[in-house]
Write a structure and sequence with these properties.
Elements: E1 4-6, H1 9-23, H2 32-45, E2 53-56, H3 67-79, H4 99-104, E3 107-110, E4 126-132, E5 136-144, H5 152-160, H6 182-190, E6 197-200, E7 203-205, H7 219-241, H8 243-252, E8 260-268, E9 271-276, E10 281-287
Parallel strand pairs: 1-8, 2-5
Antiparallel strand pairs: 3-4, 4-5, 6-7, 8-9, 9-10
Helix pairs in contact: 1-2, 2-7
Length: 288
């Protein structure tokens, strides 16, 4: 028997992302692809809430008047407290591209100690520059606000935790035609391009934040967005390729399936399901 199968998992996925943005207080655009980019751009600018081990660079220096704010951040990192209040207020702008984060994978956090009515700590002139992965926080230094292209960040990461950016090291590159200045990096980002970094003679890194697209969006944002778009297509193929087994599963439960089946994507507790609306059964497809 042939079956008519109706499903559009990509649409369902975009609806899920759109709902998430709305629940966070944002108004997403209509274009499905742009919704996905907005969502993952927003998500990337956040620091996932989980306890982390804190590493402090040997070059690290913090002004004494900001030490209490730094201590609070360190404690929050170690305890797994949300660091959102310390981030830039531009987190409220869905279309804002954080060039420092997109290019080098570095966050900047304000060191205020008082939480204001807008949900952010009081802004400070000097800010903490730090890099995060799933288990660790690497505190680079405290510098004045605006040090977005200071190559000393990469030098400090390389000198203290080279393993954390090893995947970006270009071992086949032996030299550049000219020395890259901080101003060169600023101009490159403005032009939505990227430059290699040479933290010490003969050592070269590609951007450890993956870099920027020609539109200024983070390459990592586009990569993740495309990954899930492809995954939705794969999930549809899984349903089509296994439809006979799914029908037998329905019959085994005493159901009587017809020739038309309609599947929608459902997400619960980070698990992804295909739910058949006519015969009320679900198939687990994977996890987020």
């Amino acid at each position: 028997m042939g079956y008519e199968i109706n499903m559009d998992f990509y649409k369902d996925w975009i609806d899920h992302l759109r709902k998430g943005l709305k629940e966070a207080g944002y108004t997403p655009v209509e274009d499905p692809e742009e919704v996905s980019i907005q969502y993952f751009n927003f998500l990337r600018r956040l620091i996932p809430v989980r306890p982390r081990k804190v590493y402090i660079a040997k070059e690290f220096m913090c002004p004494s008047e900001l030490q209490l704010g730094l201590d609070l951040i360190i404690n929050n990192i170690e305890q797994g407290v949300d660091l959102g209040p310390y981030l830039s207020k531009k987190i409220a702008d869905l279309d804002y591209d954080d060039d420092l984060l997109n290019d080098w994978g570095v966050h900047h956090l304000h060191l205020g100690t008082n939480l204001e009515s807008n949900g952010f700590v009081k802004r400070t002139g000097p800010v903490l520059f730090a890099r995060f992965d799933e288990q660790n926080a690497y505190l680079i230094n405290v510098w004045s606000h605006g040090n977005w292209t200071n190559q000393e960040m990469i030098r400090i990461i390389h000198n203290n935790w080279p393993g954390s950016i090893e995947r970006y090291r270009l071992k086949d590159v032996t030299g550049l035609n000219y020395s890259v200045t901080d101003r060169d990096i600023k101009l490159a980002r403005k032009a939505h391009s990227m430059l290699l970094i040479e933290p010490e003679p003969g050592v070269f890194y590609a951007p450890p934040g993956m870099g920027l697209t020609s539109a200024g969006t983070g390459i990592e944002v586009i990569r993740v967005s495309d990954y899930y778009a492809d995954l939705m297509t794969t999930y549809e193929d899984v349903i089509r390729d296994n439809i006979a087994e799914l029908i037998e599963m329905v019959k085994a439960e005493g159901g009587n399936s017809g020739e038309k089946l309609s599947f929608v994507l459902k997400i619960k507790d980070r698990k992804i399901f295909a739910y058949e609306v006519n015969y009320d059964f679900s198939v687990e497809l994977g996890e987020l």
